[in-house]
């Protein structure tokens, strides 16, 4: 397969991009004028699009006559394909960001106000961070330290934790116990949270019940409550939120009208918070 054939199979946006860029650089293609080469490329692109839509192969006389010239040109100017690839990637990222913002707007109050969410820091803070986590996520373990440092240094951040168990049955059981712990106002959820992340090995139901007992809760009663429908619904609401935002890993964050995917260092979180205050976005121009 030659390079011309490969180009013909690029997405339609890519084909249009080549057709747009190539003629402007075409001084070295013999006696062809820029207008001639532009018309040729547009003809080839139109035929390829027609073939794709009709799903029937058609011979292209123009491709047969001038395909080698186009291929030679692109081989001599590979930076054009690289620039096209970067442009397409940027376009896709911008589309994803726009879609996420529309989704967050549609979700409205469900993002920051759920009866079973955990709220740490300043409940009236001027910047809110929502973290999706799993007790068996290694990156989430470091995220606890970053969160605690941020809350210690910045007294005007509202930090919301959402139980998002996706890695194992043990994670799901621990999330159920954590939901019950959070409902008990006589127990420190933050202490429970940090103790679980300090555990060696996998976090499971036994370990979660053990920590709950250390904090003064009756493990038998907690285990009986684990299958309560309201607990299932609480975790289910987080799953629904994550699904709407295409969140499928941990940790992930919602900051302002953006989803920050993947682990963030303390410095990264702090910078995003500062940017939110400065320009209303996690990244300022």
Automatic annotation (TrEMBL):
Residues 86-278 form the Thioredoxin domain. CDD domains: DsbA_Com1_like. InterPro entries: ScsC_N, Thioredoxin-like_fold, Thioredoxin-like_sf, Thioredoxin_domain. Pfam families: ScsC_N (PF18312), Thioredoxin_4 (PF13462). Keywords: Disulfide bond, Isomerase, Oxidoreductase, Redox-active center, Signal. It comes from Maritalea mobilis. Gene3D superfamilies: Glutaredoxin. It comes from the Bacteria. GO terms for molecular function: isomerase activity; oxidoreductase activity. Residues 1-26 form the signal peptide. This is Protein-disulfide isomerase.
